[in-house]
Amino acid sequence: MYQYFYELTGSVIISTLITAIFPLVNVLLVALIGVYLERKVSAWMQDRVGPNRTGPFGLFQTIADFLKMLQKEDAVSSEVDKKLYNIAPVLVFAGSFAVYAVIPFSSKLIGSEIEVGLFYALAVSSFVVAGILMAGWSSNNKYSLLGAMRSAAQIVSYEIPTALVVLGMVMLLGTLSLTKISDMQTAYFWNWNIFGGPELSVTKFILIPFMLVGFVIMFISTLAEVNRTPFDIPEAESELVAGYFTEYCGMKWAMFMLSEYGNMFAVSAIVSILFFGGYQSPFGYLGNTLGLHWLIPYEQAFWFIFKGWFFIFVQMWLRWTLPRLRVDQLMTVCWKYLIPYAFVNLIVIGIISLF
Amino acid sequence: MKEYLKNTWLGIYTVLVGMKITFKHLFTPPVTIQYPEVKLKLPERERNRLYVNIDDCIGCDQCARACPVNCITVDTVKSVPGEDLGVTSNGKKKALWVTNFTIDFAKCCYCQLCVFPCPTECIYMTDVFEFSTYERKDLLYQFSNLTPEEAEQKKLNYAKFQAEKEAQKAAAAAAPKPEAPSQNNTN
Fold first, then answer.
1. How confident is residue B178, by pLDDT bands cut at 50, 70 and 90?
2. How far apart are alpha carbons A26 and A299 in whole angstroms?
3. How confident is the model at residue A279, as a pLDDT?
């Protein structure tokens, strides 16, 4: 994508900007549709109707909210640490947006095809912690600080099981490049890593249960990393008002919101790349059967976004199913359950990958 | 170790059970009633805004006296002999002009006590319950069908009639003294 525009315009800056616009639009759409869907899904699960007054089926509700947010006064309380307070939402958003640089939406639509894509994604997504801590500390508010501390503790602990599962996958696949991982799982859905990878042998069937365990651990820990229920203690409304962004309003608050939804899609994307074939179609490509090869990247983008949305839906589904965990339970789940299982999984996958 | 594995299994299993329940509810129709468009059927003996069928009202003031919060005001003027006020639907002859029949719904407690004493059943509960207003004075409902001018006219009529009667009485009181014996005489 970047290469194409570079050849077209001959300018590094313009081609970079154009390449960056697509993920930005994606993040905005995810936030816009995600908030709507969140409300609708929660309403349906609780036998309610959900937003249905603004526009057909309440579709314009989030747009109305967004317009309201734009009009709000940028109120800053006098006791905050102005510099950190102002930079924190930008940092949080930048952290969650930077992950999109390596996410391959299709074989053609990718910001940067770096070899260490997976490592980069993990590293940059934990960058968000710094922004959250800044927001919590600079707000000069008990609730904000408590929320930020909880968030930091949570994200740092849950990074370990994520990293262990990713390590196992990297050992098995032998690459950190997200495009290569996706390309390995091409053609049909039984080639996905969750079904033991593309190689048809005995190891494929031995791998399946361990892949499932790995997927569950990865999904739970990424859920915790994006501060979603049942792991939403950093922003627990009933305890901490809103957590680390209690003191924020207007567009700054909207940036936290945007980064939350951006993160949701990013972790869904990484889970789908690692275990569910990334942008690969589960049933082969229409472009191949019709002989229209230009169609394939579009199909891939469709499948990728579909998978991302599916996992976002699962996250919402879990949110409206489970109550919030207590702080000690949160740490128990991570350190006593996820990490030992992840270790065992890692070792077993390592042994299997030897054969 | 056994406990540990059991906990793990329980954790995963219970989450799946919960997810199954919420997934089922995803497809259950909502229980919400879209209120302004769809309204629930009101109960049979609901008590809402009062209405007075003024054509049947005989101005007996019993509702006003029954009211525990004094929200009903009834002013009446007696009719003069020549006037025909008609009859109520249950055949009672009306004798009073109801010049003013106001109910202040800001005060009304919807106890329905005014409904029972009414001899002609002209005051009753309706099914209107959405009549909130921005001004408290808009809750003062006037049920009399006489305009203020008409009411004034009726009052004047009665006053005139009364005055005439007084005059007649006075005349009768002044005149009969000399006539009284003559009356006796004629009899």
1. low
2. 16
3. 82
Distances (CA, A) of B153 to A182, B56, B150: 95, 21, 5
pLDDT in tens, A270-314: 888 888 887 888 887 777 777 777 777 888 888 888 888 999 899
B19 shares contact with chain A (CB less than 8 Å): yes
Indicate if the alpha-carbon torsion angle B101, B107, B109, B110 is positive or negative: positive
**pLDDT, average across residues B4-29:** 89
Q: Which tokens go with B25?
A: 């509810």
**What per-residue confidence (pLDDT) applies to B176?**
62
- Asked if residue B50 lies in contact with residue B126, where contact means CB atoms within 8 angstroms, the answer is yes
DSSP code, position A334:
I
For helices A128-138 and A82-98, angle between their N-to-C axes, nearest 10 degrees: 160
Q: How confident is the model at residue B134 (pLDDT cuts 50, 70, 90)?
A: very high
CB contact under 8 A, A318 and B32: no
Tokens read off for A14: 């313009």
Distance between CA A32 and CA A281 in Å, rounded?
26
Name the residue among A49, A216, A317 with its Cβ closest to that of B22: A317
Backbone angles phi, psi at B16, to 5 degrees: -65, -40
Main-chain phi, psi angles of B97, to 5 degrees: -85, 125
Categorise residue A141: left if φ over 0, alpha if ψ from -120 to 50, beta otherwise. beta
User: What is the DSSP secondary structure assignment for residue A106, as one 8-state letter?
Assistant: S
Domain boundaries defined on chain A: 77-354
Give residues with Cβ within 8 angstroms of A41, minimum separation 6.
A313, A316, A317, A320, B26
Structure tokens at B54: 């003024």
Q: What span, in angstroms and rounded, lies between the C-alpha atoms of A99 and A301?
A: 17
Q: What stretches in chain A show pLDDT beneath 70?
A: 1-2, 236-238
Global ipTM: 0.77
Residue B177: per-residue pLDDT:
60
Q: pTM, whole model, 2 decimals?
A: 0.78
- Asked if A341's CB is within 8 angstroms of B25's CB, the reply is no
> Does A45 contact B31 at a Cβ distance shorter than 8 Å?
no
The structure tokens listed for A335 are 């350190």
